[in-house]
Design a protein that fits this description.
two-stranded parallel sheet; 2 strands
Length: 86
């Protein structure tokens, strides 16, 4: 198990994550699934990470809500922050 990423929610959102936070979580969850030989979740979270991956000429989303990502994060019990402030 690698280090669990932080949770950062956009301003005035109860659900959803900042784009960077969602990207880091998708990478983390894909890696966890890969180590557990969970090929279905690996494909799901790797696909999410590829969609959110920073690329030249493409802005990182300010906010995203991906239900599958939220459900997986919930299992880790990580405390949420807004704007990076605990």
């Amino acid at each position: 198990m690698s280090k669990v990423p932080y949770i950062e929610r956009p301003y005035d959102w109860d659900i959803g994550l900042t784009g960077e936070c969602a990207y880091l979580w998708a990478l983390f969850l894909a890696n966890e699934a890969d180590m557990a030989d969970d090929y279905i979740n690996y494909d799901i979270f790797k696909g999410i990470a590829e969609q959110l991956e920073p690329k030249e000429g493409k802005a990182i989303p300010t906010a995203v809500h991906i239900q599958k990502l939220e459900e997986a994060i919930e299992k880790y019990g990580v405390r949420s922050t807004q704007h990076g402030v605990s």
